[in-house]
Design a protein that fits this description.
Layout (H helix, E strand, L loop, with lengths): L1 H5 L2 H18 L1 H4 L31 H37 L1 H16 L2 H11 L4 H28 L2 H8 L4 H37 L11 H10 L6 H33 L38 E12 L2 E13 L4 E5 L6 H8 L7 E10 L2 E2 L5 H10 L1 E4 L3 H4 L6 H13 L3 H14 L5 H5 L8 H14 L4 E5 L7 H18 L2 E6 L2 H7 L2 E6 L2 E7 H6 L4 H8 L14 E2 L24 H5 L5 E4 L2 E3 L15 E2 L1
Parallel strand pairs: 3-8, 3-9, 6-7, 7-8
Antiparallel strand pairs: 1-2, 1-4, 4-5, 9-10, 10-13, 11-14, 12-13
Helix pairs in contact: 2-4, 2-11, 4-5, 4-7, 4-9, 4-11, 5-7, 6-7, 7-9, 8-9, 9-10, 9-11, 10-11, 15-16, 15-18, 16-18, 18-19
The chain binds adenosine-5'-triphosphate.
Membrane topology: Multi-pass membrane protein; Peripheral membrane protein
Pfam families: ABC_tran, BPD_transp_1, oligo_HPY, OppC_N
Family: Belongs to the binding-protein-dependent transport system permease family.
């Protein structure tokens, strides 16, 4: 961090000047040979000379001495403003942005009220009430300046709340407090530093302004405001008394702004590595619980018995509310996963795969809600978990590996620190033991030279290495179910294969179950035991992987399989695609949701919702015209 700041020459220069001024003011009694009130009428209103570097005022007092002594109270008052403003605003801004809900609404109302007050009039009232106590007035000014900082910090915290690495920290079981201190605060530090510098500059202006009006130091004691006031009265005779205070004020204000800019750039660079690494995600609050008894998703013919199952999802419906309209994106979904099993969910983009995985890991985005059904994990009712139980579930039951490894790792933390915090949070290990465990985890995900990797920031890793670190974090809590949402989509093909191989070998070593979400049959086919095909928010087919892949019964599954690059025989032909596009959630028809793109469509497909039924042992399909051996599987593929 310090290196990044020093790289900004302007800011470094400004900091040196600012520090020099502050130190000189603090050490004024030592640095000056005369006192600030020592008069010498014979030397009145002189210009700069070797004896008086900034000249003298009308009473022959040395202006430099008065600037240095006067700066002590002026800078102290500015500091009070800044400390009060930032000290009040930062906690409120973080709570409003990160916690949200009613806390956000209350804080927003209070800040709106304070912002609507006329600052100058309030200050004059405060000054009248505390005319002898400028520090109290400065503290009041700090309170008046806090609301814009609250808004700024709130915005930064809100943006961080939506980052993938916060989801990852939640799934790793870190409590809200730890997440705020370890992940949110470092990310809002940039805006805080800038605001602190600006608040100090503003405080300085106010301190000087109030003193100019006579509320500050009383003669003969100096401060910069009273010096400017006195200087303005003798401006016709000499500009130096005015310039001395004015230059000090201008210099400190300018350096504060430049230092603030430098600090902000330093904070941004240290958490991003490069600006291109920063991405935003929509906000996501906790989900709500509700029930929906009706189920069109029929019984799974191939599943572990409920008492053997690790995860049992029944009739799950998920909806998003945007602009006051609720839209179901997953409807009536059944899914069962046995301990140690790898199940894949496959389907085109927008079919609801991630919504299912996020509902299971309790990470639905803002506006997202479980509106029906149940999710049971071992003996837990996942949808109703709260507080400690939710941390416990995330800490020891599920883990989440996200699509983009770069955004899923906190860019402001070295890999070793990031993993150590996860390891220490749950197991209460000493630092040394936690560091050893971190190296063990990095070795477990087959990263060469774990000690060197532990010292790097995420932006210093390749995509594949970053995803291995993401997996190391996911297994650090020894989960029973690892959810991997498109874990290889952001990686190139060779790295994809390595990551899938790693997931398979970790699953075997640790005995955990895996729910793999992908739009790519090739990925699912490499490691899954069973597969669930989703279309339009519902399951259209499921069964053992080899069975579904060899004998797809739903035309959609068949079309997906036909679109795999590996199924193209003639390299000269373009890749096949499925005709039409996925319907948006609000456009789903009553009958078969795939009907508009299906060449097997008949009138009865549109008449009523299509139930799931068994086509064979261990093989279910939601289609009234399931494909049979010999039926064309490419009918919907457009080449
Ligand atoms: N935060 C959100 N707000 C509103 N709608 C959303 C939100 N997230 C997802 N959706 C909608 O939910 C539907 C299902 O999205 P989901 O991400 O679950 O599908 P997916 O199959 O995983 O697709 P992808 O592979 O592109 O992520 C989509 O229509 C999408 O627009």
């Amino acid at each position: 961090m310090a290196r990044q700041f020093l790289g900004n020459r302007l800011a470094t220069g400004a900091l040196i000047v600012l520090a020099a001024i502050v130190i000189a003011c603090a050490a004024a009694p030592v640095l000056t040979s005369s006192g600030p009130t020592d008069t010498s009428l014979g030397e009145s209103l002189q210009g700069p000379s070797a004896r008086h570097l900034l000249g003298t005022d009308q009473l022959g007092r040395d202006l430099l001495t008065r600037v240095l002594f006067g700066g002590r109270s002026t800078l102290l008052h500015a500091l009070i403003v800044s400390l009060v403003a930032v000290g009040v605003a930062v906690p409120l801004g973080i709570v409003a942005g990160y916690v949200g809900g009613w806390a956000d609404r209350v804080i927003a109302t209070v800040t709106d009220i304070v912002m609507s007050l006329p600052a100058m009039i309030v200050m004059l009232v405060v000054m009248t009430a505390f005319s002898e106590h400028l520090p109290v007035a400065m503290a009041a000014l700090g309170l008046i300046l806090a609301p814009p900082i609250v808004r700024n910090v709130r915005g930064a915290a809100l943006a961080v709340r939506n980052e993938l690495f916060i989801d990852a920290a939640k799934v790793a079981g870190l409590s809200k407090g730890r997440i705020v201190f370890r992940h949110v605060f470092p990310r809002v530090l940039g805006p805080i530093l800038v605001q602190a510098a600006l608040a100090t500059a503003l405080g300085l202006q106010f301190a000087v302004g109030l003193s100019f009006l006579g509320f500050g130091a009383q003669p003969p004691s100096p401060d910069w405001g009273s010096m400017i006031s006195e200087g303005s009265q003798v401006l016709n005779s000499s500009p130096w008394p005015l310039l001395a205070g004015g230059i000090a004020l201008g210099l400190v204000s300018l350096t504060l702004v430049l230092v603030g800019d430098g600090l902000r750039d330093m904070a941004v660079e240290s958490w991003t590595g490069s600006p291109s690494r920063r991405r935003r995600r929509p906000a996501r609050p906790p989900v709500m619980v509700s029930q929906a008894p009706r189920s069109q998703d029929g019984p799974e013919t191939e599943k572990p018995a409920p008492d053997e199952a690790l995860l049992v999802v029944r009739g799950l419906s998920v909806a998003f509310t945007t602009g006051g309209t609720e839209r179901k994106v997953v409807s009536d979904l059944n899914l069962t996963i046995a301990p140690g099993e790898i199940v894949g969910i496959v389907g085109e983009s927008g079919c609801g795969k991630s919504s299912v995985s996020r509902a299971v890991s309790r990470l639905l985005a803002s506006g997202g809600e479980i509106v029906g059904g149940s999710i049971r994990f071992a003996d837990k009712d996942v949808a109703s978990l709260k507080g400690e139980d939710l941390y416990e579930y995330r800490r020891h039951s599920v883990s989440y590996v996200a699509q983009d490894p770069m955004t899923a790792l906190d860019p402001s933390l070295r890999v070793g620190v990031l993993l150590r915090r996860i390891v220490q949070a749950g197991e209460g290990l000493s630092r040394r033991a936690a560091d050893a465990r971190v190296l063990e985890l990095l070795a477990q995900v087959q990263l060469p030279d774990p000690a060197a990797v532990a010292k790097r920031y995420p932006h210093e890793l390749s995509g594949g290495m970053a995803q291995r670190v993401g997996i190391a974090r996911a297994i650090a809590t020894k989960p029973r179910l690892l959810i991997a949402d498109e874990p290889t989509t952001a990686l190139d093909v060779t790295v994809q294969a390595e990551i899938l191989g790693l997931l398979r070998s970790l699953q075997q070593q640790l005995g955990m179950a895996v729910l793999l979400v992908s739009h790519d049959w090739g990925v699912v086919a490499q490691i899954c035991d069973r597969v669930v095909v989703m279309y339009g928010g519902e399951v259209v087919e499921r069964g053992r992987l080899e069975k579904v892949a060899r004998e797809p019964a739903h035309p959609y599954t068949a079309a997906l399989l036909a679109c795999r690059p590996s199924s193209v025989v003639d390299d000269d032909l373009p890749l096949p695609t499925i005709l039409g596009s996925v319907l948006s959630p609000g456009e789903w028809p009553t009958g078969c949701r795939f009907a508009a793109r299906c060449t097997h469509r008949t009138e009865s497909c549109d008449a009523a919702p299509i139930p799931v039924s068994a086509v064979a042992s261990a093989h279910d399909v939601r289609c009234i015209h399931p494909l049979r051996d010999g039926d064309s599987t490419e009918v919907t593929a457009d080449v």
